[in-house]
Every structure is written in structure tokens, then in C-alpha cells.
Amino acid sequence: MSIKIIKNKELSIWEALLPVVILVTMLAINVYVYGDDALGGSNQFVLLLGGAVAAIVGFCNKVPFARMLEEINENIKSTTGAILILLMVGALAGTWLVSGIIPSMIYYGLQILSPSIFLPATLIICSIISIATGSSWTTSATVGIALIGVGGALGFDLGMVAGAVISGAYFGDKLSPMSDTTNLAPAMAGTDLFTHIRYMTITTIPTYIITLLLFIIMGLMVETNGNVDIGTLLIDIEQSFTVSAWLFVVPVIVIGLIIKKTEPLIALFVGTILAAVFALIFQPQVLNQIAGVDRMTAESAYRGILDAITTDVVIPTENKTLTDLFTSGGMQKMLGTIWLILCAMVFGGIMDAIGALSRISSSLLKMAHSTFGLFASTVGSCLALNITASDQYLAIVVPGKMFAKAYHKKGLAPENLSRTLEDSGTVTSVLIPWNTCGAYHAGTLGVSTLDYLPYAFFNIISPIVTLIVAAFNIKIRQLISTPNGGVDI
What we know:
With 489 residues, this protein is mostly helical. The protein has helices spanning 13-34, 42-60, 65-78, 80-98, 101-112, 115-133, 136-154, 158-175, 180-189, 193-221, 230-240, 249-259, 264-282, 284-291, 298-310, 320-325, 330-333, 335-353, 356-366, 371-388, 392-409, 414-426, 436-445, 449-452, 457-471, and strands spanning 313-314, 327-328, 480-481, 487-488. It has a two-stranded antiparallel ribbon with strand order 1-2. A two-stranded antiparallel sheet has the order 3-4. The protein is globular.
């Protein structure tokens, strides 16, 4: 991935921060006024207003409008794959509902996962899938959706469930050699992949253990909403769908394709088509219900499947909880998230074009007078880029490029930088509502970023553990001078 850092006439730090301060203030007001409905369009426009403020700063510093448009274009172009994946996730969720895959997962999950072990089990399941696939996005789009359904049926606050899903998904994403960010971070820092992964365990394993303990405690102490009659839920599911273990063939194939390094877009498309076929075989009554007919015809089957892929479908049951779970927005549901990403890319593109991103990072670098200061500046830079550029890749690439020489100058091995980039750049991206990762997971799981943020323990604790390790100089690897004047590790 080639991402350039634009340098113009250097802005003052106050000029660089002005659009950020105004944006965050407006977003805070927006969330206060609209609550969870802020993602319905108002946040998107606020991002454009933030971009307008950044453009005014650029005009005052003689940055051509054409350059701003060019960067916006490059930013939006870089999200093409993510947008297509989002659309396919919507299609996948719709067909996995009408085929009975998600209802069957909920059916069997209710019998296996008791409330006391549900949260830690969710964390572990998502960790395993994410390590296997190398993708937090795929994990949320497959088992994550099903676990949200099970958690909702058990009466859990969906923010807790989503927090466990995301914590597990990002643990696996960090440690999997198939993850794009796990490959990108060492490339930016100048170390190799497996050295990077081994060195990450110093901070990642303690963070994961703390996260697991927190979810175990929560599972034992949290009271679910109301008394859930699992027996009645199972009967209601059986009355609405044909439940079968054979339906799990589809998710197994999709996960297998991802493990075999098939492009996620292709794997999700295959999963959508296979689920559509399984819907015809296992759930003709559901397709008839969607099409509003009593007997299946070629036209009604076509309509039922295409409606599930593209638009809102609701499978009514005798139980309101299940009816809420058996609702899918298809590709249409993802349009708000795509809209948010596009507006975020406008803001991030203008901030990059006027040199604000470079100025903020360089200011943080100047504050690094000690080893701990260097680590803290890297963490701060990654967080700032996730907020301003709205993209986890920029939050890895920009600090990676700017801090590499500083780490080398202080005699620190490059894996110190690569680990810090992942501990603060990769995992915190999902905590920002307008970041591509925050928008994606909120849209996929159907839980707003602010609702799952307090429970995404792994993502919150990771940068803190990184700073603790740096503060106490725990296994901070140094460069060693060699006889020929070079350095080695």
C-alpha cells in the first residue's frame, strides 16, 4: 500500500488543530441532540462542515483547491474495497437470515451457551475465527452477527455482546500473519513479520487475559434483561424456520475460503449465493412469506431472495425478541455507513492536503524527549490520525514513516515501533464512530459505536498496556552496535 504524506508550507499547530477541535465539538453536540440517530445523516454533514473548516485553513495558506480535491479523490478511491465489502456484508446478512443459517446458529447457541459463560465464550470464539481468517471485518460479518443474535435472545445488552465480539476480533486480527495491518506495521517500521508478531505478545497476551477476566466477571454478575424462557424461544424458532446443522456448511465454506487467502469480497459473494440456494432448499415458506404468496413460483422465489439481499425483510414470530433479531436491512442497510465513510474521507483528504496531519504528527514527535515520551508520542499520533484521517491504515503509515528514524536514533529496535503502531493504531480505529472501522463494525453488528465502546476492553486496554510496558522498561528491545559500524538486534 502506497500512502504519501503531503508537506506544504508548515501550518502552526493551532491552525492544524482548529478543524479537529471544531469537528469534535460539533460531533459531541450532534450526539447530544440526536443520540443514536446521529448516524442517520447529521454526523455525515458535520464531517463535511469539518472539511470546510479545514479547506478554509488551506485557502489561508495558499493550498490549491485542486490539491484538496485530488486528496479527497485518493482517499475515496482507497475505500472502494471497503465499500464493496460493506454492500456484500449486507447481502450476506440478508441471505443468511432467510436461509435459516443465523436462526440455526441462534437455536444451537441458546442450548450450548448459558448466560454465565456467554460473554467470555463470545470473546474466545471471535478470537479463534479472527486468527484463522486474519480479519476482524470477516469475523464480525459471520460469527459476530450470529452471536449478537444469541446475546439478544438471552437478554444481554447488545453493547456488551458487540464489545466481546470486537475485542476477540481485534485480538486475532493483531496476531494473525494473514492480517493486512499485521503485515503493514512491520513494513513501515522496518522489521519482519514474525519478529513483529512474537514481540507483540508481550503486550497483547496480558491485555487479552485482563479482557477475558473482565468478561468472566461480567458474565457472572450482569443480570440479563428480564427472564428469558429459552424453551419457548427454541419452539418459536422451529415454527418460523427449518433448523438444520446442514446449514452450517455455508459459514464453514466462507471461513475456509478466507483461511485459504481468497479475497474477502469473493468469499462473501460465494457465501451470499450459497445461502440463497440453501434458502430455496430449506426455507421455501420463508421466501413465500417475504414475497407475500402462498405457493412458491419462480417469480416469488426470485423476489424473496432479491428482497433479502437488497432491502428490509422481517420474519415475524410469536416472540417480539426474535422478531427484532430476525430483521435484516440487506445492502440498503449499509448505505448510511457508506455515506459516513465517504464524508469522513472528505475530511481526512482535506486535512492531509493542507498538511495538518503531518503537522500534528511532527508536533507529537517533538515532545518525545525520552524513551517513554517517544512511545507516548507514537500512541498519541496514532489516536490523532484515527480521529482526523478516519482510517486505520493512515494511523499506521503516517506515524510509521515519521517515527522510524526517531526510534533508530534512540537505539530502539524497529519492532518497538511496529508493536506500538498496532497497539494504538489498529485497535483504536474501531472506537471512533466516523472511522472506517468504527462505521463498519457498527453497521455490521447493528450496534452503535458509543454503545459498544465501554465494553471493547481489549481495544481500550491495549494502548494503556503499551505505555505501562514502556514506562517500566519491560523487555524494550535495543539495537546493538556491530564491529563494522552498523546495528543489529
